[in-house]
User: Which sequence fits this backbone?
């Protein structure tokens, strides 16, 4: 299967987006959840630089373009329903989160018993 066939085989939501879970290949930490459209996924597959679709700006977003905290794709997996992507990436710079944190998942909700 080539890149175009792979992209076309996936299931996108009504807005043409698919969720992408981003995981550090070395630490196995989950860094972020982003969304991709067909164009951003093709760009990622061709350049190996993680490119997402910004829902707020309604445009492509190359991770690290302004911050320098780039992400390089190492592996890609897709789930059993073909509607979610999982990327193993190499994180460059200080981290993935726009707050400066290494991961977007740095806050824990403590369940009270």
Assistant:
């Amino acid at each position: 299967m080539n890149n175009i066939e792979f992209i076309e085989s996936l299931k996108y939501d009504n807005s043409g987006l698919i969720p992408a879970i981003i995981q550090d290949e070395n630490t196995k930490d989950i860094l972020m959840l982003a969304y991709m459209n067909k164009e951003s996924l093709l760009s990622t597959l061709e350049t190996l630089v993680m490119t997402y679709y910004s829902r707020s700006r309604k445009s492509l977003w190359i991770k690290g373009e302004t911050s320098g905290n780039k992400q390089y794709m190492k592996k890609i997996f897709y789930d059993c329903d073909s509607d979610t992507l999982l990327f193993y990436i190499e994180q460059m710079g200080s981290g993935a989160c726009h707050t400066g944190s290494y991961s977007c998942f740095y806050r824990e909700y403590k369940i009270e018993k």
Notes: The chain has one domain: 3-9+18-91. Helices lie at 3-9, 38-47. The longest strand covers residues 71-78. Residues 3-9+18-91 form a domain with the Ubiquitin-like (UB roll) fold (CATH 3.10.20.810).
